[in-house]
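Dear support,

I submitted the protein below through the web form. The confirmation email said the job was done, but the results page showed an empty box. After a refresh the structure appeared. I'm attaching both so you can tell me whether what I see now is the final result or a partial one.
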Amino acid sequence: MTLLALTAQNRRDVSEHAGRCRRFLVTRLDAAGRPGPWQAVELALHDTLHEVHDGLPAPLAGVSVLITRGAGPGLARRLARSGVQVLLTAHTDPAAALQAWRRGELAPPPPGQGEGGRADEGCGCGH
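What the results page shows now:
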């Protein structure tokens, strides 16, 4: 089974800036790819993806797919080392984003420079 998370800062729409997001919608997909109910997950300020540099924060443990409207290449590389695929969507509706993922229409963030112009571990947001 796949555990999938969406960034959802306002608790209902897919949001941007995965690194700073504190609120997520999480669902477990069964073997046929059907989603279960969405669960809201909220992170503490010190548990955001921007602050946690090794794997995922405990409330997101087990997530293997993260869908967001914004993430930098550094965050995507770092999470990939922990087995998490980061994918970008233009959809704000969680159901539409999930369907686009199921159709294989989502892509990872484009490769680019990391924080401070380095192509290493930065989130790509320039801070």
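Response: this is the final, complete result; the empty box was a page-load delay. The chain has one domain: 2-117.
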